[in-house]
Structure formats: C-alpha cells, structure tokens
Specification:
alpha+beta; Multidrug-efflux Transporter 1 Regulator Bmrr, Chain A; 2 helices; 23% helix
Amino acid sequence: MNLTEEPEIVQWPVSHYVFLERVGPFMKTARQAWQDLHQLEFLISERNEIVGAMALYKMPNIYRAGYGLANAPEVLPKGLQYEELPGGKYSRFELTGSYSNLPQASGRVWEIVWRKNMFVRSDFTIENYANDPRATPEEKLITEILIPTA
C-alpha cells in the first residue's frame, strides 16, 4: 500500500457539495451510496458543473458519497442533498493506487493520528478522489484522506 504517513497541513477551500447520505456500517453503506450516486451523475451534470468526487464520513456511521460542484446547484435530482462546505484546516495523507486499499489506508491513517496524539476537530473526514478513475490507471489513482484539525 502506497500511503504517505507524515501528514501535510492544508487549507481546504469552501466547496459546493451534493451528496447521498447513508447511515450504517461503512462497509455496507459506502458501495451502495456510490452506485446510487453514479446513476444520478448525468442528471446532476445536465445543469451543474461537476468538478470532483469526494466522500465525507463521520464516526460512528455517517457516510456521504458526493460530487463537488463549481457553483451552488440550480436543480438537483430527488434524494440528493446540497451543502456548502465551509472549508478549513486538514491534515492530508495521500494514498496512491486502488480504491480497494481505502479501508486499510483509512485505518492506518487513524492509527497514526491516535499515535501522534493529533488534535481532531469534530467535523467530517474527507476522502478526495484527486483524479478520474475512468481516465487514470488504477495504480495511479490518488486519494487524499483529509483529517479535520484545529
């Protein structure tokens, strides 16, 4: 697994985010949330510019699969929610490679956070999918795991 283990402090910008929220164990809810969201991608993109994909999660069991938009949405398909993310300071870890490594990588990131006794603010963790899996070889996929810090 190709994961940076020394976090970089970054400032995440204010973002427009449309998402499907699921509550329950991530191993059960995440895949289904993404499958449902991908079915709505065309409808979202008809009136909105999608600028990226990211998941937000908060312990114990809140998972959001969603897209970043260039602007606040004009119209959204039924079932989607919108939020303007306020941005803020995050500790960024980077995974290069298959999304199938995300559960292990996320676990490792949290081990590092706890071992280093890092202060984590009460907010969503972000998994930012930095490149498009439709145009990027699996071994070159980059996922930023962003831990909310003070």
